[in-house]
Amino acid sequence: MQIPVRTALMPLSQAFESLLMAVECPLPAEGVCTLDSDGRVLAHDVVSALHVPPQDNSAMDGYAVRCVDVSEPGAVLSVTQRIAAGSCGRIVEPFTAARIFTGAPVPPGADAVVMQEDCRVVNDCEGGVRIQTVPRTGQYIRRAGEDVARGQLVLHVGQRLGPAEMGLAASVGMHTLQVARRPRVALFSTGDELVMPGAVAPQDMPPGAIYNSNRFFLAAFLRRAGCEVTDQGIVPDRLDATISALQLAAQTHDVILTSGGVSVGEEDHIKPAVQTLGALDLWQIAIKPGKPFAYGRVGDSHFLGLPGNPVSSFVTFLLLVRPFLLRLQGVTDVAMKTVAARADFAWPRADKRQEFLRVRRNANGGLDLFPNQSSGVLTSAVWGDGLVDNPPGGVIVPGDVVQFVSFAELFA
Ligand code: AMP
Ligand code: MG
Fold it and tell me: Engineered SS bond to 345: which of 88, 163, 216, 369, CB 3.0-4.6 Å?
């Protein structure tokens, strides 16, 4: 009797590194309006050509004064000018004050702003103000360049832009930005059992049929990762159909992403199809859910094959495909960032694979576990708000510190 040879499973870290190494260079750059740059990846450094704020300005509505004139509370100064945001004042002469408003440049000579709540307009002396508190030098003055100094690198090549980055780019005057072109991704599902929602009503579903759910979360994930998605539908479980779908997709796409058909069953045609057209590695990754995963090339396109089980597809997309797509756009830092958190659950069955458990933060600052961790149970991903990264052989008892990564981070 022949003893089956067990191929060693590939550690996730190795699959991750191999995938990133397959990205030779980021996609070419294109210009976008800063206003439309959300989620895009910078193709150049942004260096500020000015100070932000450009000059010293007031942080309060009040009076700009010379501290030397207000050595004790109650000093009366004559108000000789009024400076609103957008206008500039003159030098503040001894024993005078400038009425000033938030954001207005601090006039020369003044070295503090006293907020209006600490001042009284003096009626018996025309244009006078009584300063009730003794100001500190520099008080309520926002210094020129305190946010950004002229010549400072504010955003760097490979940085992904979000609302804060867009605001910062605008604050240094950037109205357009060079960003990596969006990856063009062809998405298709494989499996003769799959039916599109809407094509057949639930009560009319034939025996053995299931709705195609992977297509929906994968398309959404791809768009969130900055991709342009071509949805190529469901490919029948036939070698010729799989080959022609791949061939067509490779002509105009940077990436082909499939789900299902990457096991080595007789109905799994991805492997022979990609091998006919290019090259393919089938990886058995030491993770749960999500063991089978395929990487290959079809023409100039990258081929990424996800397992069919919905949660396996979901998790492998987040752990492997998303970082790959970000790196394709030039993102430097694509490593998953976990944080330490307390498990409020038990996980007594150790597995030799690295597990990604669907969990939810509770009101006590700990994590609860979804009771059914099967790779087909997509409700776990909706109930949960993140994953626990449980190392191979890891047993968890309540109170243990575990590594948690939130969906908010992974879905961004
Ligand atoms: P496969 O990887 O093709 O062997 O599929 C594994 C399991 O995932 C099977 O039970 C499939 O029916 C299921 N599956 C595959 N593709 C999808 C999909 N797009 N949506 C929902 N379930 C799927
Ligand atoms: Mg299948």
Answer: 369
Pocket test for ligand 1, best of 259, 264, 375 (most atoms within 8 A of CB): 259
The answer to whether residues 378 and 319 belong to one domain is: no
End-to-end CA distance of the chain: 52
Q: How many CA atoms lie within 13 A of 30 on its CB side?
A: 10
Q: Is the CB of 307 under 6 A from ligand 1?
A: yes
CA of 309 relative to ligand 1 center, distance in Å: 5
CA angle 215, 216, 220 (to 5 degrees): 115
Residue 118, in any domain of the structure: yes
**Residue by residue, what is the 3-state secondary structure of 154-168?**
EECCCCECCHHHHHH
Q: Is the CB of 214 under 6 A from ligand 1?
A: yes
The pLDDT value recorded for residue 325 is 98
| CA 281, chain centre distance (Å) | 29
C-alpha torsion sign, points 284, 285, 291, 296? negative
pLDDT per residue as tens digits for the range 182-222: 999 999 999 999 999 999 999 999 999 999 999 999 999 99
Q: Which segment of 122-126, 174-178, 240-244, 339-343 scores lowest on mean pLDDT?
A: 122-126
Whether the predicted pLDDT of 80 surpasses 60: yes
Please report which residue ranges of 278-309 form alpha helices under DSSP H.
Answer: none
Same domain, 128 and 71: yes
Looking at residue 268, what is its pLDDT? 85
How sure is the predictor about 282, in pLDDT bands with cuts at 50, 70 and 90?
A: confident
Is the CB of 258 inside a 6 Å radius of any atom of ligand 1?
A: no
Residue 162, token pair as written in the block: 């979000």
Binding site membership of 260 for ligand 1 (Cβ less than 6 Å): yes
Question: By alpha-carbon position, which residue is closest to atom 16 of ligand 1?
Answer: 308
Same domain for 311 and 225?
yes
Which has more confidence, 124 or 406?
406
Nearest CA to ligand 1 atom 17: 308
Residue 135 lies in a domain: yes
Say if residue 229 is in the same domain as residue 112: no
**Surrounding residues of ion ligand 2, Cβ less than 5 A:** 191, 260-261, 308
- What pTM, to 2 d.p., does this model score? 0.92
The boundaries of the domain holding residue 404 are 339-411
Q: Is residue 79 part of a domain?
A: yes
Ligand closest to Cα of 187 equals 1
